[in-house]
Amino acid sequence: MPAAIAAVVLVMMATIPALTNNAPAAAADVSTCTGTPQAPIYPNYDSSEELGTYDNTVAGEVIIRRGFYCVPSSSQNEAADGFGFGLDKVQNRHHIGRPQDGYNRATAIKAVKFVLSAPPSNVTSKTDDWGFGWNFLVYANGGTECPKGNPDPQACANKVSVPVKAASTEGGDDYEPTGGMPAGEPLGLQTVYCDYGQQSLLRCDLWVTAALAKAAEGQGIN
User: Fold this and answer.
1) How far apart are CA 199 and CA 214, in angstroms?
2) Pairwise CA distance, residues 91 & 189, whole Å
């Protein structure tokens, strides 16, 4: 082979990208809630979408993002295996403002904002795997004997007061490898839940959303 042609061939070979250690990203798997940022468990689902904010006097501004929630299909323990963040987790794990219960997104966000409006005495700082953040505590007041969709649970029988807690974080990037879902920076709201004293009791009673939303309206929170 003439020297000139050999040199051209060598140059062409040098420009071909190496194929070793270049395996494609693992495919997302909704059944196991596993994925990567390149192949998230819910493709084309913007879990980082900002739906609203609330400015607490102690914690400052907390972003409420769309988030996501996933439980592996093989799970026998949702409390241990389910994960996510944001409004999706609030609705689907803890049943606050669920569309299936007749609530729209605006009502769900209003209920969340009331929890984030907790007074200074009920706001405490925390540090967890996602970094620095805040815990919030309010009480939902109502009655357990309420017809579905009753807008005024305080008028229902069997009066009770349920602690409702929220958590936020200033972290964001650390969350993204979880299922490969985008989180935003800062992530903001992690979750809101009713504290019944047992971790296995994930779901708030149906009337709690209405009670929180009504309390929010009483404070002019929309």
Assistant:
1) 26
2) 13
Which 8-state DSSP code applies to residue 17?
P
β-pairing, 123-128 with 68-70? unpaired
Q: How far, CA to CA in Å, does 41 sit from each of 27, 92, 115, 177?
A: 9, 16, 29, 11
Going by the DSSP 8-state scheme, the letter that residue 115 receives in this structure is H
pLDDT tens by residue, 2-49: 554 444 333 433 443 333 444 444 578 989 999 988 899 999 999 999
Rounded to the nearest 10 degrees, what angle do helices 207-218 and 105-116 cross at? 70
Distance, in Å, from the CA atom of 122 to the CA atom of 136, rounded to the nearest integer, reads 6
Cα-based angle 38, 41, 47 (whole degrees, multiple of 5): 85
* Tokens encoding 88: 């999706």
Rounded CA-CA distance 216/222 in Å is 7
Please spell the DSSP secondary structure of 151-214, one letter per residue. Answer: S-GGGSEEEEEEEEEEEEES--GGGTTSTT----SS-EEEEEEE--S-TT--PPPTHHHHHHHH
Interatomic CA distance for residues 24 and 9, integer angstroms: 29
Q: How far is CA 70 from the centre of its chain?
A: 10
What is the value of pTM for the model shown? 0.84
Asked if residues 206 and 60 have their Cβ atoms less than 8 Å apart, the reply is: no
